[in-house]
Amino acid sequence: MVQAIIIGSGIGGLATAIRLARQGVSVEVYESSDKPGGKISQRTIRGFRFDAGPSLLTLPSLVMELLDDDLQFPLKKLEIITQYFYEDGTRLTAYSDAQKLASEISEKLQVPQVRVTRYLEKAATIYDLTADLFIFGSFHRMKNLLKLKSLKTLINFRKLHAFSSLHKFNEHQLGEKRLVQLFDRYATYNGSNPYKTPATLSVISHLEHNMGAFIPEEGMIKVTESLVLQAERLGVKFHFNEPVQRVQTKDGRVQGVWANQQFIPAQIVVSDVDILRFYSSLLPDARRLAKIMKEERSSSALIFYWGMKGTFTELDIHNIFFSAAYKEEFDHLFLQKDIYDDPTVYIYISSKYRKEDAPEGCENWFVMINAPADVGQDWEELVDHARYRILEKLERILGKELRYCIVNEEVLSPPGIARQTGSVNGSIYGSSSNSRYASFNRHANFRKDIEGLYFVGGSVHPGGGIPLCLSSASIVADLVNNFYKV
To answer: Which of 146, 192, 241, 426 could form an SS bridge with 300, CB 3.0 to 4.6 Å?
Structure first.
């Protein structure tokens, strides 16, 4: 039987374990943490439960197709994806339904509905042209480039708007400043800068508003729990608190890994760790490391877990309080490696739909702002200042003294994210997409020169976020199946 070792149990690693086990491969997963899931985890603070990572699902079928029928879990489709709050007093409800969204935007921002629906149609076209080659396939293999659908993508390449920034594209298509800011925000879904990332990322709006956004009824942690149960049912063996120290290769083939000072042989090794960390410690490679380090790192996050006394009817599950100076905010993040005085604030309140996540009469606020990657800043000072500015902003817009409502609090800054998730510098998505060539520069899911070595997760092709990490697992499983005929 073919033996496989997976390094890391993020969603990419878990999905790979399931797919390989279904193909008859003997799979063992080595995880440095004491629990699986990577960024899809949870945190409990004196009666308040928080989803600690992603807060919604798009393309949930990518999860469900991995699970036996009895392990599939109920989902709540969001009617309202986000409540948006602007500094000028505008409040806008971003409905999941494209027509309702267009109507709301027309009423609140005086933008013709057709402008919004046309934008989402263009986003759908981008998805149709990119899905097979850039999301669910590997353009690193020549045979994929020669497929009919790939040729269609190349013929219609101009429709991808890859040579325009997302911001410029949104300005041209949408015009209205507040609406442009709303659709610029999608760049942050993979830790990028809308003023630099290609307009191709407008595809994310298609996933949310044309295809729908969902939340597991039992919280996002249900994704991790279900995948682990499925893997164990298929015979996958997990080793927690057992970090891999080194990957061993010889004569162009992988031989296995070293963990706990012991060598574990395997014909297949799949890395689900940050690719920069992989080449700096697990399989040191100065040339590849230097190439990766030339890429601009993605942003990180500063998160406050607030247990709030009281209920706040003006808020929904997902809420955004926009900065009045969006470009300055991103200049601070990526150029000055600092946090802007007027940050955009995201609040996720799972107790709005899952009452048991907070004590009666309370809410669980996951409060997050974008933060720069950790390059040695004084995080104690940055956290204190950011907390003050966040509360000042929220209290002004909501007209309530929120600081006296906080009954429990924990903080997670970029150094903590780096420690908990293994993301180098706390950069949640590895390299950013702040270049028109970013997609092409992402590391492939395999090594041509080392048989049996594969890569999944957010720092390699096709990129960060749940759907893309799941796609990386599918790509690797297909590669293994085709090579080993398992």
So the answer is: 426
